[in-house]
From TrEMBL:
Gene3D superfamilies: 1.10.287.1490. This is DUF7527 domain-containing protein. Residues 396-433 have a biased composition (Basic and acidic residues). Residues 282-296, 466-483 have a biased composition (Polar residues). The lineage of its organism: Archaea, Methanobacteriati, Methanobacteriota, Stenosarchaea group, Halobacteria. It comes from Halonotius roseus.
Length: 720
């Protein structure tokens, strides 16, 4: 059996039960509805009838220890029996197209046996309507907790849901119980025969009362009455065959006094022995307040006994509104001799068997249903399950009233709680309002104090600013960053610029068209650094003062503004023609400049740094200069470096004109001898220039030695 069904059943409450077949008989006598298990074998019972043993046999219960679980709803054991079968899916409907209530009416009228399952595309839960011979019961499992709903509540919830429901047909066969293994303990216990005569009534035993009689126009009234619940007959009840082709009609006679109008009542069982047809003809309304109804089950000896309606068990009389008493006696066919008992009783059992085994779903189209001659639809006069508010039981109404009272009590309690919270909130609001007023007063006082302090602070700031200004006037500005001389010079370049290109330029001076005064009035040397000079110090000296005191800057100014005019005034423009012609081309003077002098054996570039590199606008080197600003005389080392680097530079750059060795002291004899040897030692070398270092016949550069003794620069070699 399905594990989900087992898990659901084992959550039901257990009831005491004996062992083996005796235990099953005890459950049958108690009209038990639920599940019973013997080890791994399960059986389901409905009102004492064993309706199914899924996947097992009755022999498993023989002498076994049993456990019985009582169902919270009689619909569940019947539903689980059907679900444990290979139930055939007959149809599928969408609730918006065919409502469950519409399908329910059609299935009930068609004596359907099976169940409806509404679970597809439904989020709230699973809903079931279980049918046996057209009678139905409803259950539902709602929410994640699978809360159980039954009867009208389950049906109404299912009918209101939107989704797809399936209709499954099933076969239900009541299983006969074997004889008891031991005799009943008391004489009051019902016998198996008497238990088999009972019917399964999921809603409980109810006394049948005749319908209220009405006074039709023709003076006769006929009504069908049913139990309105699923009734499963005893096993084998539908196997009796009729003895003849015709069904005899029972004869009913009514005896009355001469003063009372005669009343004839015909009472016979319907096709399941569940309803009684009462036909009465009376000129006056009949009072049934004292009547009782008794159902007599068929027996093998007498056949099916007709139901007798006795107004009084002792006298058999009844009061009427007009005459007072009427006795109604109902005779069986055997008593009247109107027909064969077997023939009379065969038809109800035959119809019962046909009804119980119905597995075909009737059409949901009312036009397709056949209507019986007596005005009732199929189902042998069965009463369809009616669901309306008028059928709510007294207990259900009481439960609803209790729930309403509980809700009202909770609402009143909540109202009192909210009222208390409201009063408390009002008190807190009043207290908060008072606190706000206090804080506002404190805030106003604090604001006044703030204004006073701000005034005092402003006066203090003014005095402090005056003091700071006085201190700044007497103290040098504080520096924030220090640099080394090499870093400061390496990031500095000097540019030759003019206030006006239309005024005197070095080119004009080269051509003899400008005087030194003209050049001084228009030419300027601008400083550009690769770093922010504000607050920078070099060796504890502000950068501007440090740069102005450097020999490199002074040499650049002499080279640009003085040397050209000295060459003109001394007539050395021819002897130092390369230098004279290169001065007007000066654009930038790079301090601590670097020049590439070629490559080594591994093709790695050879770079040389000079104290000053003078370049034209295209960045080509025109002059180089190395300095010795110590107080010691300069020897041959400085000169040899200039000669060696000058040769390499001239081979790669035709623009290179001269190399300068500059000292703030003087040159030694060794320095002059090295210079003379490099320049040929004569006044004019093979190239025709003074102090000219030849590289080839027409290539070379001038080697110039300059000293600075007392602030001014003087060219010592070549002598002017």
């Amino acid at each position: 059996m399905d594990s989900e069904i087992v898990g659901s059943v084992t959550e039901w409450e257990t009831v005491p039960v004996g062992r083996g077949y005796d235990g099953l008989h005890d459950l049958a006598d108690a009209e038990f509805s639920g599940g019973v298990t013997a080890g791994t074998t399960w059986g389901f019972m409905l009102n004492g009838r064993l309706v199914g043993i899924p996947g097992g046999s009755l022999a498993a219960f023989d002498g076994a220890e049993l456990t019985a679980y009582e169902a919270p709803s009689p619909a569940l054991p019947l539903l689980y029996t059907m679900q444990s079968q290979d139930s055939e899916k007959q149809a599928e409907y969408y609730t918006n197209e065919t409502a469950i209530s519409e399908a329910d009416t059609t299935l009930a009228d068609g004596n359907f046996t099976g169940y409806i399952e509404l679970s597809e595309n439904v989020l709230s839960g699973n809903y079931y309507v279980v049918y046996y011979g057209g009678r139905s019961m409803s259950v539902a499992f709602v929410g994640n907790s699978r809360r159980l709903l039954t009867d009208e509540e389950a049906f109404e919830r299912a009918n209101d849901e939107v989704g797809i429901y399936n209709v499954y047909a099933a076969d239900i066969d009541v299983i006969d119980l074997p004889e008891r293994e031991s005799s009943p303990s008391t004489a009051d216990d019902p016998t198996p025969d008497s238990a088999d005569d009972q019917t399964l009534n999921p809603v409980g035993d109810e006394s049948m009362t005749p319908a209220d009689s009405t006074e039709p126009d023709d003076g006769a009234a006929t009504e069908d009455s049913g139990l309105g619940s699923i009734d499963i007959p005893q096993a084998g009840g539908g196997d009796t065959e009729p003895a003849g082709d015709e069904e005899p009609e029972p004869t009913t006679t009514a005896d009355s006094s001469d003063d009372t109008p005669a009343t004839a009542a015909d009472t016979q069982p319907d096709n399941r022995g569940e309803s009684i047809d009462d036909s009465a003809e009376s000129t006056e309304p009949t009072d049934y307040s004292g009547e009782s109804t008794e159902l007599t089950a068929p027996t093998e000896e007498t056949g099916y006994d007709n139901t007798a309606i006795d107004t009084d068990p002792a006298t058999g009389t009844a009061d009427t509104a007009a005459t007072g008493e009427t006795a109604v006696d109902t005779a069986s066919p055997a008593d009247t001799g109107s027909g064969d008992p077997d023939t009379a009783n065969g038809e109800p059992f035959e119809e019962e068997a046909e009804w119980r085994n119905t597995t075909t779903i009737p059409s949901l189209d009312p036009s397709d249903d056949e209507v019986a001659d007596d005005g009732t639809q199929g189902g042998g006069g069965q009463q369809a399950v009616t669901r309306s508010e008028s059928q709510l039981s007294r207990q259900q109404l009481r439960e609803r009233l209790d729930k309403a009272e509980t809700v009202m009590e909770k609402a009143e309690q909540r109202h009192e709680e909210l009222a208390a919270e409201r009063d408390e909130a009002r008190e807190q609001r009043d207290a908060a309002q008072g606190r706000i007023e206090e804080l506002e007063a404190e805030l106003a006082a604090a604001q006044d104090r703030i204004e006073e302090l701000e005034a005092e602070l402003a006066a203090t700031d003014t005095a402090a600013e005056s003091t700071q200004a006085a201190d700044n006037a007497t103290q040098p500005p504080q520096t924030t960053r220090s640099m080394t001389p090499a870093d400061a010079l390496g990031g500095t370049n000097l540019f030759v610029r003019y206030d006006s290109k239309g005024a005197a330029t070095l080119a004009d001076a080269h051509d003899g068209e400008a005087t030194p005064e003209d050049i001084d009035g228009n030419l300027r040397i601008d400083t550009h650094t690769t770093f922010d000079t504000e607050g920078v110090t070099v060796d504890d000296t502000p950068f501007e003062a440090f740069l102005a005191d450097r020999i490199e800057v002074a040499f650049a100014e002499w080279l640009v503004t003085d040397l050209l005019f000295e060459l003109r005034s001394t007539g050395a423009t021819t002897a130092l023609k390369a230098v004279y012609d290169a001065i007007p081309q000066i654009d930038r003077i790079e301090l601590q400049g670097m020049i590439e002098l070629g490559t080594d054996e591994d093709d790695e570039p050879i770079e040389r740094t000079f104290d000053v590199v003078v370049r034209d606008k295209r960045g080509k080197p025109l002059f180089i200069a190395d300095f010795d600003d110590s107080k010691q005389p300069v020897g041959a080392d400085l000169i040899e470096g200039l000669i060696r680097n000058g040769n390499a530079l001239r081979e790669r750059n035709d623009s290179f004109a001269a190399g300068f060795g500059v000292t703030s002291s003087y040159f030694t004899e060794d320095a002059y001898e090295i210079a003379d040897d490099a320049t040929g030692g004569g006044l004019f070398s093979r190239s025709g220039g003074k102090s000219f270092v030849n590289i080839s016949r027409k290539q070379g550069f001038h080697l110039c030695l300059v000293d600075r003794i007392k602030g001014g620069f003087e060219l010592q070699k070549p002598e002017l």
